[in-house]
Amino acid sequence: MEYRFRKAQKEDAQQIRDILRQAIERRKQDGSRQWQDGYPNLEVVENDIEKEVGHVLTDDEVVIGYSAVLINYEPAYNDIEGKWLTNEDFVVMHRVAVSQNYLGKGLAIYILRQIEELALTSGIKSIKADTNFDNAAMMNIFEKLEYSYCGEVHFRGSARKAYEKVLGWQ
User: Fold this and answer.
1) What is the percent of the chain with per-residue pLDDT over 70, rounded to a whole number?
2) CA 33/CA 16 separation, integer angstroms
3) Separation of alpha carbons 152 and 80, rounded Å
4) Is 165 helix (H, G, I), strand (E, B) or coil?
5) Distance between CA atoms of residues 11 and 61, nearest Å
6) How far apart are the C-alpha atoms of 111 and 109, rounded to whole Å?
7) Which of 73, 75, 128, 130 has the fewest C-beta atoms lying within 10 Å of its C-beta?
């Protein structure tokens, strides 16, 4: 298996949508309310691709994972109830998802590590992210990768747990 993390292309949109649908169903089965309102959808994916923030993890040419990766942009993060570790440039990740066929292989962690590499390559040492209060799987990943809980942000009408990792502090 040859994994590659790259910018998403228009032709990846349907595969990404399918992966996100699988993740939405997993969230539902886990009892989570995250992503149970029609988000994220194909329009969101197409917008990510158009803005060149969508990234895919591939196994050969098959899309097996997805994340949006933004630099210095998440308006919701301006109003944290708590405190970020840094006020410097940062990378934000959203919509991290892995194909149902590739679960249990540590690929969500692999995606986050690839995002950390992208940040470092861009000269950025801060990664910020948020997740729903009932997304135990993602909170577990943040803990494993030594992200720090910083407080709450409000995203799309609900409170979310906010995390930051400062690269190079470990």
Assistant:
1) 98
2) 21
3) 6
4) strand
5) 11
6) 5
7) 75
pLDDT digits (tens, 9 = 90+) for 76-129: 999 999 999 999 999 999 999 999 999 999 999 999 999 999 999 999 999 999
Nearest alpha-carbon partner for 91 in 118, 64, 62: 118
- The mean pLDDT of 56-74, rounded to a whole number, is 95
Q: What is this structure's pTM?
A: 0.93
Question: What phi and psi, each to the nearest 5 degrees, are found at residue 27?
Answer: -60, -45
Better-scored residue on pLDDT, 56 or 73: 56
Give the per-residue pLDDT at 69: 98
Q: Residues 132, 72, 125, CA angle at the centre, nearest 5°?
A: 90
β-sheet bridge partners, residue 59: 3, 62
Q: Which residues of 5-40 are buried (b: 16+ CB within 10 A; e: fewer)?
A: beebeeebbebbbbbbbbbbebbeeeebebbeeeeb
What is the arrangement of strands in the sheet containing 126-131, beginning at the earlier edge strand?
3-7, 54-59, 62-71, 91-98, 126-131, 158-166, 148-155, 81-82
Residue with tokens 């995002």: 115
